[in-house]
């Protein structure tokens, strides 16, 4: 890592931030499930998934890593769809 440019070090930092956000979504899911004493996936899980995934996707694109680009790209679509479903369900509840 000592021979990396400043730009590359910044991108590695961005990658770690994305991975940290992506990992922390599991902690949120675990805490919520423990509090309710049943398995739960809170809305924050999907938002953390999306944000972390987009950041890791940006890092993968910068690194030109097709494995991570495909994996995070597909995951990002799933997270967006789940957030859309949450908003649709909320609208149905509010409209009665």
What does this structure look like?
It contains 3 helices and no strands. By secondary structure, the chain is mainly alpha-helical. It has one domain (6-95).
Write the layout of secondary structure elements.
Blueprint: H1 6-36, H2 43-63, H3 66-95
Helix pairs in contact: 1-2, 2-3
Q: Count every helix, treating DSSP H or I runs of 4 or more residues as helices.
A: 3
Straight-line distance between termini: 57 Å
Question: How helical, in percent, are the residues?
Answer: over 70%
Structural class from helices and strands?
A: mainly alpha
Shape by Cα distribution: elongated
- Poorly predicted ranges (pLDDT <50, ≥5 residues)? none
- Counting DSSP E segments of at least 2 residues, the number of strands comes to 0
Name the beta content range: under 5%
Question: Which structural traits does this protein have?
Answer:
elongated, mainly alpha
Task: Summarize the structure in short.
The protein is mainly α and 96 residues long.
């Amino acid at each position: 890592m000592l021979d990396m440019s400043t730009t590359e070090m910044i991108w590695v930092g961005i990658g770690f931030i994305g991975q940290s956000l992506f990992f922390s979504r599991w902690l949120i899911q675990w805490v919520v499930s423990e509090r309710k004493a049943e398995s739960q996936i809170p809305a924050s899980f999907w938002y953390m998934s999306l944000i972390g995934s987009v950041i890791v996707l940006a890092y993968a694109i910068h690194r030109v890593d097709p494995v991570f680009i495909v994996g995070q790209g597909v995951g990002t679509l799933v997270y967006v769809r789940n957030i859309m479903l949450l908003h649709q369900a909320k609208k149905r509840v509010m409209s009665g």
